Amino acid sequence: MAIPRKYLVPVIMLLAGLVAFSGCANPSVAVSSHIDDLDLTGVWHQVVDVIDVQEETARLDTFNLLTDADGDIQKLSLKFYGYDTDGSPKFYSAEMNSAGQLVVKTLVTTSVLEYRHPLGILAELDAVGIAALERGDGGLAVQIRFQRNDIGYTYDYVDVFHLAHGHLRQLELIRLSSNYYSCTIEYFRLQKSDSGINTTPPMPVPPGERTGQVWFLTEDINRATDVVYLGG
């Protein structure tokens, strides 16, 4: 049975209480300019090495990657919460600048949201092989966000997968609960004609014609209220 819900919703970040952290110039790390050489777990370790954070307390907020058709990286951002070595909650925003440096800004916040540690999520993206993903004539986009909604995804409307150890297994149906934050990974083959705003079309796009996928990790599969794999 189809679930007529939008599956790609706008990312809304409420960063109430965030205050710019004064002090030295924002640290930065050099990252690859091409997707073939992008090592996300390596990027994570580089970022942690140049900031004041208790690494084990880090909780991913959002991740965004955008390339052109040739695989050159146009945008890379990694945002997360954590506690510094004094135990104060912070929000960290790492974004690529025009020189190919990932610049990390630290902001003061009132709390650390209970999402998930970034390393395991980024390791899954490394394992699946982002560089091998098909790109459209406008490139590709990968984004990660957390949601806490009673929401369902069905094969009638979207290609949705279980991602585990770098392998994708397609689902016929998954229903998530508002009782916890689920990690949603979205991958798009971009077309030059895209408006830049990804929304659910008014009618279902047939399999084989879709340019986007949604992936869920094992933790979300185990917590889901209903999971059916395609083909049983």
From TrEMBL:
Record bears the keyword Signal: yes
Signal peptide: 1-25
Domain of life of the organism encoding this protein: Bacteria
Keyword Signal in record: yes
Annotated keywords: Signal
Protein's recorded name: Lipocalin-like domain-containing protein
Organism: Candidatus Dehalogenimonas loeffleri
Organism lineage: Bacteria, Bacillati, Chloroflexota, Dehalococcoidia, Dehalococcoidales
